[in-house]
Design goal:
By secondary structure, the chain is of the alpha/beta class. About 40% of the residues lie in helices and about 20% in strands.
């Protein structure tokens, strides 16, 4: 652990965020149990902190605080403009602490510092964006309805759902928290947030930031813990009106089943095995750059990562050669080291999972072109070389299943029709990308993809203004933009009979 990281941990411990406590009702409270879990630095495998493993009682306390803040507090009764002022203050504090928060994300998650800085800047931008939408709600929350029947008037109004629960993943810890917290608070909901037990530190820093912004007590509550305990208790809690989850398909499926018991409103952003189709007229150097960013950014630990690359047969050999050359040049190391583009995987379990996937792919007939092993320069840390696989069957496990690491599978295609068919042959449908100088062809292929997010001549750029979510087993609902705000709003119809005369149902 370097000097800067040690300083950050000391600062946060003194400030309160790193205390082994939950953030409930605006206070740092002791856990109901003495059980803890360990947070480690993936670059060194050193222990950073021991945090409380929250249980059902902790969740009960947090949900109770959120329910009280919603039903008896001021938050839902504030105007959108007033809520927006709080969100804007949170954004301002995050911006002021960019360097500290980015370094903490590197320490906890392992990603390179420039990528962590992007994430924290986007986090501030997300709160700023939803501050604006909160203000707009004052004018947009009520819409008149034209009725065919005379003598009646009708309108639709938008109201906050109530208490929202959020469970976030470890790959973009603070940003994924913002994707849920910011729209929920903008809508007037209160929230209980359970961060990933793998990367909980910036979520706790967010609690400290909300304290500084003087967010009313109980509006945002944060409980650390394991999914099987704190997570399940949050999903099943009868006083949670809305549940938002980002994570794996198996966990998302379990959450849907649990939420069905009391018909809980659920939005799910799940896995992907996203294709990138490269046509023969594409500049090879540009294609190589976007392929690398699409799969090696954030160590490939991205739900939308373009991990299946389909290349026109005419340029396949040349592109594969150039991609291999450039992949072998990527600088690997600790995320706080200048020039590093590929940091460690997030923990031992993920590292073993990715290595096992590569082994299975080779055992089933795929060719390992490069990577697939730890760099010899590292004795510790969960480092893995950029990995390229070819020659796998279209129905093979490695081609069909999400790996969540710096591993790309590449196959050639012979026609546009074949490329589309191969791209759509997946149980996932989160994202897809197409590259060609022929923009009409790009538009045609983009519309043919069965995916919720499509990139043209690029891969992975994400904007808070645009909807995010997938088809098929990649999830339910959309985050970001106005779609993200609507996740936390109910629509109510109010119809009025305007005449003083009897309607005449039985009086004639």
């Amino acid at each position: 652990m370097n000097t800067k990281s040690i300083k950050i941990i000391a600062q946060l411990s003194e400030g309160g965020s790193m205390r082994a406590k939950h953030f409930i009702n605006g206070q740092w409270l002791d856990a109901e149990s003495s059980k803890t879990f360990t947070v480690t630095n993936p670059a060194t495998e050193e222990v950073i902190e021991h945090l409380p493993a929250g249980n059902k009682l902790d969740i009960d306390n947090a949900v109770s605080a959120a329910k009280t803040a919603f039903e008896q507090g001021v938050w839902p009764t504030l105007t959108g403009k007033e809520r927006g002022q709080y969100l804007r203050k949170i954004a301002e504090i995050i911006t002021r602490r960019l360097d500290e928060l980015s370094a903490l994300e590197v320490l906890d998650n392992g990603k390179p510092y420039p990528e962590a800085l992007w994430d924290i800047e986007d986090t501030a931008g997300t709160f700023e964006f939803y501050a604006n939408l909160a203000e707009e709600l004052d004018e947009k929350s009520e819409v008149g309805i034209t009725l065919a029947e005379e003598g009646f008037s009708s309108k639709a109004i938008k109201e906050p759902i109530g208490v929202a629960g959020a469970i976030i993943p470890w790959n973009f810890p603070m940003l994924m928290a913002a994707w849920k917290v910011a729209p929920a608070l903008a809508a007037g909901c209160t929230m209980v947030l359970k961060p990933s037990e793998v990367t909980p530190l910036t979520a706790l820093a967010l609690a400290e930031i909300c304290q500084e912004a003087e967010l009313p007590a109980g509006v945002l509550n944060i409980v650390t813990g394991l999914g099987a305990d704190a997570g399940q208790a949050l999903v099943e809690h009868p006083d949670v009106d809305k549940l938002a989850f980002t994570g794996s398909v198996p966990t998302g499926s379990k959450i849907m089943a649990m939420a069905a018991n009391n018909i809980k409103n659920v939005s799910l952003e799940l896995g992907g095995k996203s294709p990138l189709v490269v046509f023969e007229d594409t500049d090879i150097e540009k294609a190589v750059e976007w392929i690398m960013f699409g799969i090696f950014w954030n160590q490939g630990q991205v739900c939308s990562a373009t991990s299946r690359v389909l290349v026109a047969q005419e340029i396949y050999p040349q592109l594969l050669k150039r991609l291999t050359e450039e992949a072998n040049k990527i600088i690997i190391g600790s995320g706080d080291t200048h020039g590093v583009l590929l940091g460690p995987l997030v923990n031992a379990a993920q590292y073993d999972k990715v290595l096992s996937a590569i082994t299975r792919g080779v055992d089933e007939g795929a060719t390992l072109v490069c990577g697939g092993e730890r760099p010899s320069t590292f004795e510790s840390g969960y480092y893995l070389k950029p990995t390229i696989l070819t020659d796998m069957a279209e129905n093979s496990w490695i081609w069909q299943e999400e790996i969540f690491g710096p591993v790309v599978c590449i196959k050639p295609f012979e026609s546009e029709e074949q490329a589309i068919k191969m791209a759509n042959n997946s149980r996932f449908g989160l994202a897809a990308a197409v590259m060609s100088k022929d923009l009409k062809r790009c538009d045609r292929v983009a519309k043919a993809f069965r995916a919720g997010i499509v990139w043209v001549n690029c891969s992975q750029p994400t904007f808070v203004e645009a909807p995010w979510g997938g088809y098929k087993q990649s999830g339910i609902g959309r985050e970001l933009g106005e779609w993200g705000l609507n996740n936390y709003l109910e629509t109510k119809q109010i119809t009025r009979y305007e005449s003083d005369e009897p309607w005449g149902w039985y009086l004639k």
